[in-house]
Design goal:
Elements lengths: L8 H31 L7 E8 L5 E7 L2 E7 L4 E8 L17 H10 L5
Antiparallel strand pairs: 1-2, 2-3, 3-4
Length: 119
Amino acid sequence: MRQTELISSSDFLGPSLALLVVLVIFMICVWAIKLLQKQTVHDNDRLRIVSGLSLGMRERLVLVQAGKKQLILGVTPSRIDMLCVLEGDDCLQKITFESAPENSFAYKLKQVMKGKNHA
């Protein structure tokens, strides 16, 4: 004789509650990680990467602002070398669309994007 077993809603209650508990614990962990990351934010005025240039598959030149000095670094997978230190008037400025000279590519691109192509 074969007995037919029916699945009732109480059979789903246990696994559903367990899944809900796991999801709540996961969300609490995500919230805690975000909270800890906000507390470890560093002061970006002291040290920041101004620009970078790829020289090959694994080599880069990086311009780093450290206070009032700028450092040009050569970065490879095995080492970082300081190539040059720039201070005062020697410091390089990152050209933005707003501060670009009128004869620069950035200025002309800005004008084309605005729809004022008078070149």
